[in-house]
Each structure stands twice: as C-alpha cells, then as structure tokens.
Amino acid sequence: MTSHKIYDAPSKLNIFLKIVGRREDGYHLISSRFVRYDALRDKLWFENASAKGFDIVGDFNCPIENNSIYRAFTQLGRIYPSKELFDFAAAYKVIVYKQIPSGAGLGGASSDAATFLMMINEAAGLKLSNEELTRVGAKVGADVAFFLSGYAAANVSGIGERIEPFSEITPRFTLKTPPILCETPKVYQTFRLNYGDRAQSNARLADRLLTMTSADILRAEYEAQDLNDLLLPALKSYPELMEYREDGWFLSGSGSAFFRGEL
Q1: Residue 235 · residue 168 · CB < 8 Å
Q2: What's the CA gap between 118 and 176, in Å, rounded?
Q3: What CATH number is attached to the domain comprising 49?
C-alpha cells in the first residue's frame, strides 16, 4: 500500500427512539429513525506498523480490548480468518482521529467499527460481501449495521440490527455536545427500573412516527420526552444534563448530544 487512504466515519442522530418491548435475554427492542450526520465524523486510516501485532492509535477512553475497532478485528478473525487478514493486520496499524464525542448518543464507536470493517476489507483484499461484514458487525454492536448499510436515513428496529431505508430529504441540523459521557447500559437500566411499563403506548406512537419524514416529525411539536424514551432516564442518570436542556432541542440516542432541525 503506497498511500494511506483516509476513510470517514460519520455520526448519526436519532430523530425518535421508542422502546417498544424487551427480549427474553434482556435486550430492549427499539423503533427508531436513524439519520446519518456527516457534519461530525471521525477519520480513520492505516499506517505502517513498527511492531508486529494489531494496534490502534487514537484518543480513546477505554482499554484496547473494549475498543469497538479491536472487537471488530477480533470477530472478523474469528468468523472469516484468512492469511490476507492477519498478514495485513501485522503490517499496518489503524490511526483514528476522533471528533465524535464518546457517550453522546451519536454512534461514534459503532461507526468506527463499521468503517474499519469496510476499510480493511478493501485494503487487505478480503472480498467479503456487505452481508458478511454485517454478520461480523452484529457481534460488535447493534448500530454497526446502520453504518455498514450506507443509508442516509433508515427506520431501525429489533435491537438495532433491522434496517429499512427511508427515502427523504433530511433537514439541516444544529448540534450541541455537552462534555458529559452517558453510559448506555446505565441509561437503559434507569429506563427499565423507572419507565419500563410504557411499551404498548410507545409502540403505538412509533407506528405513526415510522411513516413520517424527519422534518415533519420535528415540525409536529412533539415534546422531547415523547420522541426519545431515553431522555428522562438520561436526565435522571446524569442530572448535569439538565443544564443543557432547552425547548425545541431533542436528545439523540442515550445522550448526551442535543440537536434541533433547521426547518
């Protein structure tokens, strides 16, 4: 590889996020509109490695074994092992320029994992299909499938693995990202303990929202807590978020980023 191609890992916004049930294994079932947000993205590329062994260089707040890129590589090697993969991983390290804040509900970790899978598939000549990459991504995180799909907007269900493209012209957005790291498991646990009895009414509203464009949803004057079932659990889990809450702003995912549409 004579040049180091730079790959973009975009973020995403949840226009709405409804919790509509729970599986027997404890995972919550969602109904959501994901919109790719290209204005905020990480950048990834490969560089020659000075030492043998898979390495990731970037500003991360977790041990390497918990890093989504590392987990994507581990699962790729387990499900589709090949000489091309391991030789390439020994010769090159992954460089990540982080711009998507962690714990913001913007899908940064999932996007990094999806982008890594696409870039190593291309650079190492693995010739895996998108379906095969998605199989790997599902072992890393539920949102990885959306980023692998390439869709600008999609209705997302299940635990995040069911992706249906939604054709629309998405609004322009303004984003604010408080310096607060919201841990998704903690927010979901707070939801389960305090708000977990609303699945039936959540599902009825979700059915309506799934048919509406993102612009129409944001114009409809829904309350922020009606569009995102994790807003109140996030505020309860992280009271400092209240400082950033304003009318007309909506929480993405499990927080802490707020957005509004420029309609």
Answers
A1: no
A2: 29
A3: 3.30.230.10
Among residues 131, 165, 199, the one where a domain terminates is 165
Residues 124, 216: one domain? Answer: no
Query: What is the pTM (predicted TM-score) of this model?
Result: 0.93
Range of the domain at 192: 172-262
Q: Which residues are catalytic?
A: 12, 143
- Of 103, 67, 115, nearest to 184 by C-alpha is 103
Q: What total number of domains does the chain contain?
A: 2
226 and 129 fall within a common domain? no
CB 124 within 8 A of CB 157: no
Question: 117-171: per-residue pLDDT in tens?
Answer: 999 999 999 999 999 999 999 999 989 999 999 999 999 999 988 999 999 999 9
pLDDT tens-place string over residues 197-225 = 777 888 899 999 999 999 999 999 899 99
**Is the backbone peptide bond immediately before 256 cis, with ω within 30 degrees of 0?**
yes
* Domain end position, chosen among 142, 165, 188: 165
Indicate whether 182 and 155 sit together in one domain.
Answer: no
Q: What is the pLDDT of residue 3?
A: 52
Query: How does pLDDT run across 58-102, given as a tens digit for each residue?
Result: 888 777 888 999 999 999 999 999 999 999 999 999 999 999 999
